[in-house]
Each structure stands twice: as C-alpha cells, then as structure tokens.
Amino acid sequence: MPIYQPALTRRNFLATGAAAGLLLPLGMARASTPRKGSEFRLAMAGGSSDNSLDPRAFTQQVQRVVGVAVCNQLVEILPDGSLIPELAESWDSSDAITWVLKIREGISFHNGKSLDAEDVVYSINLHRGTDTTSGAASLFNAIVEIAATGAHEVTLRLESPNAEFMRTFSDYHAMIVPADFKDWENLTGTGGYILEEFQPGIRATLNRNPNYWKTDRAHVDRVVLTVVNDAAARLSGLQSGTADVINQVDRKVAGLLERNSSVELVRSPGAVHWTFICAFNAEPTSNNHIRQALKYGCDRQAMLDVVMKGLGSLGNDHPISPDNPYYNSALEQRSFDPDRARFHLKEAGLESLSIELYTSEAALPEAVSLSEVYQSKAGAAGINLNVIRRPPDGYWTDTWMKKPLAVSSWLNRPIDQTLSLIYATDSAWNESYWSNSRFDTLLAEGKATLDFDKRKEIYGELQAILHDEGPSVIPVFADFLDAKSARVKGFEPSGVADLSGDRIIERVWIEE
Predict the structure, then answer these.
(1) pLDDT in tens, 197-215
(2) Residue 460 lies in a domain
(3) Do the beta carbons of residue 180 and residue 165 sit within 8 Å?
(4) How many domains does the chain have?
(5) Angle formed at CA 158 by CA 156 and CA 162, multiple of 5 degrees
(6) Fewest CB atoms within 10 Å of the CB: 147, 286, 383, 500?
C-alpha cells in the first residue's frame, strides 16, 4: 500500500512514543510469513451490556475493535504513528480549507454494494449537525460542506484552515458504512471480517471476508471475542490456553509474565492518560481554587511508582504528553505540595475538603488503585476523598459526566483533536462541562495556523491555561500492557492504543 505524501507539512505525533521501550521488539512481529486459517480467541476488558455498534455511540474498546474489524476508515494510523490511506486513496488541499478526497474503486461492502462517494458522505454526516448523537460531533462539525463531486470523489470545506484535518478521519467513530445504513445490530462494512453475532457485554464472533481488498491483512478465518472485565480471569485464560490475546494486563503481574516462555508481554508506551475530572458545572469543583487544591494534593510520583510500577510518565494536568512535538516544556512540573493545596482551600473559604471520588475499572484496570493512592496521600493536604467504586458495566453511561469528581481515560490523538474533544465548549465529550472563551478562541486560531512554530506557541498557551485553570487532574501517562500467546504473530505495539491500535484482528495470524 503506497504511503501518501501530502503537500502540507504534517508532524509525526506518535512515532517517538511508539518506537521506544517496547518489551516485544517490533521486528518480532514480522519474523514469519503470515499464515492463513485458524481461530483467534481474544479475551477483552472494555465491554458492557449497553454497548452498541452504532459508530456514533462508540466509547469502549470492544466496540472499537469490532468496528474496525468490520469496517474500514478513510485513513489508517500505523503502529509507528504514520498516516496512510485506507478507503481514501489520496487527498489534496492547497489552502487546508477545501479538501478533495479520491475514494478507492473496486471495493464492496459485505452486503455486495460497491463503495462509492455517497457512502462516504453519509458515513461522515452521521457525526455532523445539531441533531447528531455522535461523540465526535465537535470534530466533524468543523466541516461546513461535504458532497460527492464524482462517483469516487468527495469534496469538503472546513470552517477554518486545519493542516492536520485528514487525521480526524482516523478517529474511531469514523467508520464507513453503506449509504442510508441503520441496522447497527448487524454492522456492515468493507472490512476484513463479517459480523456473525454481537452480544453486548458478552461476546462477538466474526468470520473472515473472503473478498477483502487488503491482500496482506485478515489472516485468521474466525474470531471469537469474549468480554472478560476481570483482570485475573483474563490472565488465567491466557495462561490456560483458552485465550490467545488479552488486553489491560495488571501491572502487578507484568514482571511474572516475562518469565513465562509461552506468553509475551506487549507494551505500548504512553498511549493513554488518566484523568480525575473536576466538573465545572457542579459544586465544589466549579471553584478553581478547589481544582488547584486537588491538583496539588495529588501525589503523581507515588501513583507512577506504586500503581504503574514505573510503566509510564508523569502528567502535568494537561493532556499533551512529553514526547509530543507541541509539548510545553516551560511549564513547571506540578508536584505533591500539601501546603499549596491548603492555601487554595483557604482561598476557597475552607479549612478542609470532603468530596466523593467515583472510580471504576472501566477507565483502566488500575483506576481503583490509582484512586486509593490519591486518597491516602491527599489527607495531608486537608482533602478527604471518599472513594466510591462503580462496576465497569454501565460506568460510562451512569457515572461519567454525572459526578463532580470522577475518573476518566483518553487515548492519544492529534493535539487539535484532543483539545477539541475534551475541552472545547461545544464538544459533546467535554466531560467536565468546562467553558473558557480564551481557550476556545486560541484553539480555533491554532487549527488555522499553518506555521509550526506559531502553532506550537499557541498550543503551549492552551496547555498553560489547562494547567492553571483547567478541570483535569492528570497525574500520569500510562503505557498500555497487552499479552499474547507465543503462537500469535503479527502483533505490533502501537502508540495509538493497545491491541495494536485497536486493529489487532486484521493484523495477526496463528502459528500452530
């Protein structure tokens, strides 16, 4: 597959993080010739009974992994972070406002319909407009006009210039389905696998698409994905041989896995950040002094050492990781400081603070332990955290965005997507309901600025605003840990997400 070389300069956001510190060497994934056949058994955390295969509703990893196995997207991000064409064969823009996309010809959906430009327009419009329910609305509402300008050509116009806009189509909501498709229980796409059955929160079964247009992908004949939200049960399945791959390995057992020759640990450095959300629309967290107290009352080094076993890096209360080219290194690294936390409490008119902290393994398996470390250290700052543990099933619908202080997690994305999704006032996934007019203005300016140095300056100021006024306590950037049977080949770590950036199903093969 040829790599498109765009005329506008694009920075590689993820290559540095994806290439460093891998416990499974990248070369190992290509050590053998792909073998066709066999059944692939995937035991996964990240699924619940309320999951839907409507891409507008994707929130959890089971949905994403099934979605990207059944459907293709317009572009794909490889494990090294590079952007390549998928269903969009090429694209072009002279001003970063108007984009012309050439759609691949000769590709069919699982129902026999031939892919054309109208399918792409329909699929993208699912995430646009005031009536959409999509979590990616704030990304795709940047498109003010989109139309099929040929049988296999789509032209779109943005509200303002965005040199990185093609990366938006790698967002996990942006699955391409047939025009007018609505039967989400039987998701249909152009992908390497045809959906046989999807039982939300339980399992999914898929069969290889014999007519898949990617000749170097989709090697296994059948996939059985089982939702196993208990970490010990997933590990037991891998060790007993009833599962070939598991995700979200407990860091406490990572060292033990390295001693087992029949399994291999797969580490994806810095692919996610955890967040303690301080709701901007609720008391007491609407008060910035309270938010600052919660930030200084967080012992992030203890979290990194105790909970993460050093498998990650420190966060600084904004979502941009240190290996990102736009990272603002001039900001003071916030550290645990009980005295400064108490100062901010007094500025808020309090001698101490008691608040409920809602947490769940739905965010990441270590979320509960992370919250407990927070609780144990924050008392020295006059902060009494009452940790309330919620079950993974339903956490994203029952608790997230509904409590003043709760746990969340976010995958790596290009910087404009990250800031737009989590913090823009009009974003459906503005999890804290934060609103800051200066932030929104600068964000729009940053997207429209083509000069890298100027963009870096703007994005640096945005990080400073979040650091000083923002709604997120971000203590660490976490390495994702997966594990696989030694007979599984082709599994490449990714800086995008665990499970090879969600694309594990079409990438791996089994050696008997």
Answers:
(1) 999 999 999 999 999 999 9
(2) yes
(3) no
(4) 1
(5) 115
(6) 147
